[in-house]
Design goal:
Strand order of the largest sheet: 2-1-3-4-5-6
Largest sheet: 6 strands, parallel
Shape: globular
Order of helices and strands: EHEHHHHEHEEHEEHEHEHEHEHEHH
Helix content: 40-55%
Distance between the termini: 27 Å
Radius of gyration: 21 Å
Number of helices: 14
Structural class: alpha/beta
């Protein structure tokens, strides 16, 4: 029997929600009896909601303190956010249900969990609703709505936060973080361990919005090490132009500057070290490509504990001060790269390459009438 899965995602608030959605769409190709319909949740609202979604990039680029205030205020009273968004999306969401006729609904964005559940509840519409958390440790209360049939968590840390918010443990499934297949090495052991004296290929990036101390990091690397540096400025065109002007004239072909790129996997797979902020999506794409991480910062709120998470599992190290980059790299490559090679090894052991397929299979089983008798194991 054919099933239709409706995914509520986002095209505007960073690139992580979209990447998660794409990983699930890849997995559905092996299921001939499943159709996926994806909608940007912000597009269901009036122009006001679309403007709110589009404001995420400028705010996180230009004012982390403002983002911290927004994050904390919206977390104080989740029901206010739910009710506000419900009024904006209700009509278009009901039209969407009538057109798509989904058997299951999956939300990968916190802003649309409670609002959609409000609509389903008030309209007496009984469609299984599942939430897939897109953060690692610090999660919005908006992720944790007890009315959802299930909440899929990428980590045990996020699971524990759900329990703190009052979600019963039996409603939470820990899955690992879904990553698009192109980030995985064809050969699991393809990444070579570091050898003393080798030239380093460094990748500096800061998520789709392009924030951080990229110039200072690059200058310290190029000054103190035998290395090449590739920088991804994301959608931040002003930053890209600034970096080109200040670095390429001085360092020539040792530096390459990119804007927003769809081929970030190629850059990761050909780099020895990736410098990035604590974006969960970017972190896990680097882990999937088996690229050691140096985390240079994190957005307040949902990302703030991600650097500690990476160090806890030895997936990378944290270096928030560009002046300490040289010391950090030297510590990684000393003793024939002992610490750098340990990160490579730990990443291989940590990543769940089948997370997207496991998640999709779990969601499809939720829709089965005999689900309670079905045992689904998510590693």
């Amino acid at each position: 029997m054919e099933k239709t899965l409706l995914i509520i995602s986002s095209d505007h608030t960073g690139h992580g929600h979209k990447s998660i959605t794409e990983s699930l769409c890849e997995s559905v190709k092996t299921h001939n009896d499943v159709k996926i319909h994806v909608v940007d949740g912000f597009s269901l609202g009036k122009q006001l909601l679309i403007k709110i979604g589009k404001s995420y990039g400028p705010i996180t680029r230009n004012s982390e303190n403002l983002w911290k205030i927004i994050w904390k205020l919206s977390a104080l009273k989740p029901s206010l956010v739910d009710n506000f968004i419900e009024t904006l999306i209700r009509d278009n969401f009901l039209k969407l249900l009538a057109e798509v006729k989904p058997d299951l609904i999956l939300s990968v964005h916190p802003n649309f969990n409670g609002s959609i559940l409000n609509i389903l509840e008030k309209q007496n519409i009984n469609i299984p609703f599942i939430t897939l958390i897109a953060d690692l440790v610090n999660i919005y209360p908006l992720w944790a709505d007890n009315r959802a049939n299930y909440i899929i968590s990428p980590t045990f840390e996020a699971q524990n936060k759900c329990i703190e918010f009052g979600i019963p443990d039996e409603k939470i499934k820990v899955s690992g973080f879904p990553v698009r297949s192109r980030f995985f090495l064809k050969n699991h052991n393809q990444r070579k361990f570091y050898k003393k004296g080798q030239s380093l290929k460094c990748l500096i990036m800061s998520g789709g919005e392009g924030v951080g101390n990229m110039k200072k990091i690059a200058e310290n690397l190029l000054k103190d090490f035998d290395c090449t540096v590739k920088i991804v400025a994301g959608k931040n065109e002003k930053l890209k132009m600034k970096l080109e002007k200040s670095l390429m004239a001085k360092y020539g072909d040792r530096v390459e500057i990119y804007g927003f790129t769809q081929n970030i996997q190629d850059l990761m797979l050909t780099s020895d070290i990736a410098f990035t902020r604590g974006s969960p999506n970017v972190m896990f794409e680097a882990i999937a490509s088996n690229t050691p991480l140096i985390i240079t910062g994190a957005l307040p709120g949902q990302e703030e504990d991600n650097p500690t998470f990476a160090e806890k599992f030895n997936l990378g190290v944290v270096c928030k001060n560009p002046k300490e980059i040289t010391q950090t790299i030297n510590k990684l490559i000393e003793n024939d790269g002992e610490n750098l090679n340990k990160i490579i090894y730990c990443q291989r052991k940590f990543i769940n390459a089948n997370a997207a397929e496991d998640i999709l299979q779990f969601i499809l089983n939720v829709g089965d009438s005999n689900y309670e008798e079905t045992k689904v194991k998510l590693s």
